[in-house]
Amino acid sequence: MFDIKAELRKIPHCPGVYIMHEGDLILYVGKAVDLHNRVRQYFQSPKGKTSKILQMVSRVEYFEYIVTDSEMEALILENNLIKKHRPPYNTLLKDDKQYPYIKVTLQEDFPRIIKTRKILRDKARYFGPYTSVLAVNQTLELMEKLWPLRNCNRSLPRDIGKERPCLNLHIGKCCGPCTGKISKEEYREMVDQAISLLSGHHTEVIRDLKQKMLQASDALDFEKAALFRDRIKAIEFLSQSQKIEHAAADEDRDIIGVAKDEDNALIQVFFIRGGKLIGREHFLLETAGMLPESQLISAFIQQFYSGTAFVPKELLTQVLPEDAPLLTEFLTSKRGSSVQILVPQRGDKLKLVNLAKSNAELTLGQFGTRLKSEERRTRGAVQQLSSLLHFDEYPISRIEAFDISNTFGSLSVGSMVVFEDGKPKNSDYRKFRIETVEGADDYASMAEVLTRRFTHAIREMKELSAEGRDPSLGSFTKLPDLLLMDGGRGQVNIALDVLAKVGLDIPVAGMVKDDHHRTRGLYYNNQEIDFGSNREAFLLITRIQDEAHRFAITYHRKLRGDAQIKSQLEAIPGIGPTRRKALLTHFESLDQIKAADVETLMEVPSMNAASAEAVYGFFHAKESPSENNQ
Description:
alpha+beta, 20 strands, 6-stranded mixed beta sheet, 20 helices, GIY-YIG endonuclease, single chain
C-alpha cells in the first residue's frame, strides 16, 4: 500500500521530474527545481489550486520521481515523458503532426536534397519546419531545375561506374555523379548554392549566377548563359511570390500570440525567416482555457521547439513565459547561439505580436463551433457508449474492432482497427492473412485473428519485462478497453472464448443488425442494448464498423491484385521469386509494370539489364511476319 504522506517525507531536495499515477495510467508529469517542495504542494491546502489540479490530485494513487543533475536536464526529461505518455492533465499541443523539412545530406560525398519528416543526428542540414507541404514540393521542384543534383540511394563514390545511369541523367534531371563525369568539387559548388538559397540568401545566389551568365556570354557560350538567365528568373520568382517582406531587419524570429475562451486556448505562430514571413500555424490546447497565458506559452515553447530542427534568434510573445530563463537556456543550447524571448512594448515588434494575438482570437472563434461538434462526435460519443454499457468506474478510451473479408473462401484476411477517444488511430491498425482456415468460415477465421493478436501481446509483454523494459513499448501490448465484434451473440462468444484461453479479461460487445444489415443495437453481457437517444454513440459504432469493413476489403483487394500480377509474372522467363517480389513491391499495379520502359524497370532492386529487357519484351512482344503467315 502506497502511503502518500510517508512517501512525501522521503522526497529529496534536488531538481528532477515527478510522475503522478492512477494505477497504470500516468496522470501528470512535471519538473521541479526542488522536488520535495514542489510535490508536497499538491497535497497541501486546496487554496489557490484550479479545479483541474484538484481533480487530478483526487485521482492520484501513487507518485514516483526521477532525480536529475540540473533543472535543464529535468526540463528535457519532462518533455520526453510528456510526448511518450501524453498524460491527460498536462497541457498538450492538439496539433502534434510531424512538419516537413528539407534535408541536405551533407554527410555524403555527393549530397542529396530531399523532403523528410524525421530529424536525425546524422550530420545532415535541415531547413524548416515548413507549414505547407505544397511549398516544400514547389521548392524542391524548382531546385531540381536549378541544380540537377542526384536523388538516388547509390553509395557514391563507391558505386561510380558500376551500374548504368538512371533515366534522370538522360532527361536532364541529374548531373550524373554516378558516371564520374562531374567532380566532387563541382558538385559541391551546386550544393552550396542550393543551401544558400534555402537559407534565404536569394541576393547572393542571384549575384553569383549573374556573374557566371556574363562570363558565359563573353565566352560566346550563349546556351550556357541562357541557362543561368532562366535560373535567375526562377529564383527571383520564388523570392517575390512565396514570401511577404517584413519591415524588420534580415533576421529569423517567431511571433507567438495566444487567445483563450472558457474551455480552450489557441497559440498562433508567425514564422519569419530572413526578414520575410514564410508561413503561420496555429496549435490548439484543449481544456487549457483557465490557465494563465504565461503557463500556456511556456508549455508551447517547451513542446514545439523540442521537436524542431531550427530555433530562431528571437521569440516575440505577448507575456513572458513561466521559467523564461530556463527556456532561454534550453533554446540557446538547441540553436548553438544566443536566443532571446522578448515581450515588445512599442514599435513594429509590438505590432507583430498584436497581429499574432488578433489572428489567434479569430482562429479560436472560427474553431469554436467546430470544436464543440468534434467533441460531441468523439469524446462525447465515447462517454455515451460508456454510460450505455455501464462502464462508469472504468470509462472507455480504446476500442478495437475486427472484420473478415474473402472471395468465396479464398484469400481470407482479417482487419483490426483502433479508435481512441472516438478517433481512429491509424498507426495501430493491423492486417492479418488467414493461415489455418480453409474456405469461408468467418467464425474460425475470427478466432485465428483474435488468438494471434492477443498471444502476440502477451508474448511481447513477457519479452519486454524480461529485458527490464517498459511493456507498453510493444507494438501489440496496448490492450483495448472494449472489443467490438461485427456481429451478435456468435461473434461475441468466439471472442470471449479466445480471451478465456489466453487469460485476458476484456469486455466484448457485438453489433446487432436489422433486416437491412444496419446496426440497431449492441449485444453485451448476454443482452441486447438499444441505443435509444444516444445518437452520437450509434454514429460512432457505425463509423467503427465502416472503417473495419473498409480496411479489410482494401487489404483483400490488394492481395487479389498481387495474385493476378504474380500469375502473369510467373510466365516471364528468367523472373524468379526474388525479382517477382521486387516488382510487386516497387510497382502499384500490373498496368504500371506494363507501362515501364527498360530504364525504369532497371531501377527495381535485383533487376539487371537482361531481366528488365525480359519483362519489357514479355509485355510488348509483337507477332513476327512469319508467325502471322502460319
